[in-house]
Amino acid sequence: MFTKHLKAAILCSLILFASCKEEAKIEDNNTMSDNLLLQEWTGPYEGVPAFDKMNVNDIKDAVETGMALGLEDIEAIANNSEAPTFENTIVALEASGDELNHVFTYYGILSSNMSSPEFRAIQSELAPKLSEYNSKISQNEKLFQRIKAVYDASQEIPLPADQQRVVDLTYKQFEMNGANLNIEKKKRYAEINKELSSLYTTFSNNVLHDEENYVTYLNKNQLGGLSESFINSAAKIATDKGQDGKYAITNSRSSMDPFLTYSTERELRKIVWTNYYSRGDNGDDYDNNTLIADILKLRKERVGLLGYENYAQWRLQDRVAKNPENAMALMEAVWPAAIARVDEEVADMQAIADTNGDNITIKPWDYRYYAEKVRQNKYDLDSDEVKQYLQLDKLTEALFYTAGRLFNYKFTPVESGKVPVFHPDVNVWEVNDKDSGKHIGLWYLDPFARQGKRSGAWATTYRSYTSYQGETNVLASNNSNFVKPAPGEAVLVSWDDAQTFFHEFGHALHFFSSNVKYPTLNGGVRDYTEFQSQLLERWLSTDDVINQFLVHHKTGEPIPASLVEKIKKASTFNQGFGTTEYLASALIDMKLHLADPTDIDIDTFERETLAELNMPDELPMRHRTPHFGHVFSGEGYATAYYGYMWADVLTSDASEAFRDAPGGFYDEEVAAKLVKYLFAPRNSMDPAEAYRLFRGRDAKIEALMRDRGFPVPQN
After folding, report:
1. Is 252 within 8 Å of 216 (Cβ atoms)?
2. Which of 209, 351, 468, 513 is most buried, with most CB under 10 Å away?
3. pLDDT-based confidence at residue 678 (cuts at 50, 70, 90)
4. Residues 241, 282: contact at Cβ < 8 Å?
């Protein structure tokens, strides 16, 4: 359906669907047959992307040809002389645009994992063209009238549940994207989308520029407090960058975070902190503040054409929250407890600094460093000691163990060379059902940071499960930015990074467990789809995982029970920091889109709004506005970053269902309900109803407050 075609625009902006096509169209199009990126996938496992043969020089031609072929599909549906039916309109739309979808599998890799100046230039050129392409679909009057006819008929005589869901989602998406506007307003709507597409691409590339070009180099006398493995890795990165004999701190979270936690060099901590939190905000050609103001104005104008007061109203109508008021109510319920906890955390840190005679006042670049001192003092827990037991290889085994216990999946390494990959760091596993041996799909893992790879961690699919044209297997990937170690050394990660690893694997399990018929139903509701992945984080701290997979990287000895006990006792430690830095970003996101953007100054708005919220001076937002790619490199999380907190309520509540079950977190009955109601349906049923089927009731915020060690509100 239309969402498949929107995939092009989403991938283009980053920051992460005719009746049967005439064979003559494919045969007659020499450009398509010559361009690898447009060709059907071949090889094992029902065909796999030819990542090893893709070339950035093919991308422009492939996208443009794919768009032309996609529009042929749309015209065939729109001009069908037969009366509109579910099969000849909705199913035909579901099946359209396959060539372009193939292209955008490669496009996504070139954008997120293997970006280059050459690709970014092409990306900028294609962005407005892709916007025009999507507008030609969303504003195709004949197509929409056919969709509307099927929708109207289904209101009189409902279709089977999954078909009705596809029709409802398709109609709603076209409606939300201006299908009911008059000609003049449609024209302006398309113009705005075209402008936005270019702004999103520029925003994303500006952030990537600052991540790649701000590197802090250290000398041997500036390594105080840093671990041996971190130092060795920093030395290798510096050598790779032509700075042999120095140590590189890159402008990425995976490098910044451990440096700020352990470095004894306060002035260097300030430099590294400033580089990281100033991405997109350096007053140069790559500054994003003016871009953001333009984006906000265009978004408000666009939804105004549809009759909405602000962007948040339009965006949240099809989310679980339904409206910005509900989203704000949740955030405002948690915010006071979060900042109150920050005050307590800062007081503890300041006391240690004073006791040590450091003669400082805690600043944002001190928070992680002194928080670690407090952790050691309060819980006798050293994060670096814990890290010695968190090896990436063993954590990967822990993921597979968890998937085996909950989902009955078996992961088997694919022989090197059998499945093409886009970088030597990427490994692939085959996923099968443990009992039947049924092939589920392939799992790709790209774990390490490198030049041209966007920051953070994410999951994506190259092929999703559907059954409307015969069952398909799933090709899913997880992508991280762990710092690559020196040769021969283990990849050691922090507890937070290990949780993120489990989190992103939760998304992959969501993809693998899909049991839906139509492509549209593989989508998701943004403030719900993070729930499944956040829930999976809980299995990292289960006894089964701890006792089997947390072993010392040198001795192989299991993590001591005494250290595990310290980890569990410290589970609510630093929740003020974690909750506040996240909620600040979510609140700013929502408030920016509720504000009048006419004369908005982004720096001033951010500063004044945080002051009104009583944001603690000692820590920043997790994502400051000038590099907030979730919100301004596309629209996936715009006014929806609150969704992580919404999902956290579900996560805390659902985890208590496992906690209270006879078999704990591996209880077979609860696990079966988890898969049946929370993972397999994807978007084939209303998320709120799906959760009630799992839990027997709606989720309650009290579980979240207990999880974070905050005061539980009294009814």
Report:
1. no
2. 513
3. very high
4. no
Each residue's pLDDT tens digit, 549-585:
999 999 999 999 999 999 988 989 999 999 999 999 9
Q: Identify the pLDDT of residue 495.
A: 93
| 14 and 122 part of one domain | yes
Asked if the structure places residue 198 within a domain, the reply is: no
**CB-count exposure of residue 198 (10 Å: 0-12, 13-18, 19+):** middle
Residue that terminates a domain, selected from 641, 669, 697: 641
Phi and psi (nearest 5°) for 636?
-55, -40
Question: In angstroms, rounded to a whole number, what is the distance separating the alpha carbons of residues 499 and 536?
Answer: 9
For residues 200 and 628, the answer to whether their CB atoms sit within 8 Å is no
Q: Considering the domain boundaries, does residue 441 fall inside one? A: no
Nearest alpha-carbon partner for 525 in 398, 609, 637, 432:
637
Handedness of CA 86, 91, 94, 97 (dihedral sign): negative
Type of residue found at 66: G
User: Residues 108, 175: one domain?
Assistant: yes
Distances in Å between the Cα of 21 and the Cα atoms of 96, 141, 178, 309 are 8, 21, 27, 42
Per-residue pLDDT, 29? 43
Which element (helix H / strand E) includes 432? Answer: strand 427-433
The answer to whether the CB of 426 falls within 8 A of the CB of 460 is: no
For residue 395, give both structure tokens: 């954590």
Angle made by CA atoms 561, 566, 570, in degrees to the nearest 5? 150
Q: Which residues pair with 475 in a beta bridge?
A: 442, 463
Q: How far apart are CA 554 and CA 559, in angstroms?
A: 12
CA distance 275 to 256: 9
- The count of other CB atoms within 10 Å of the CB of residue 261 is 21
Q: Which domain holds residue 162?
A: 2-180
- 8 Å CB contact between 637 and 643: yes
**Same structural domain for residues 11 and 118?**
yes
Indicate the burial class of 443 (C-beta count within 10 angstroms; 0-12, 13-18, 19 or more): buried
Are 370 and 349 in contact by the 8 Å Cβ rule? The answer is yes
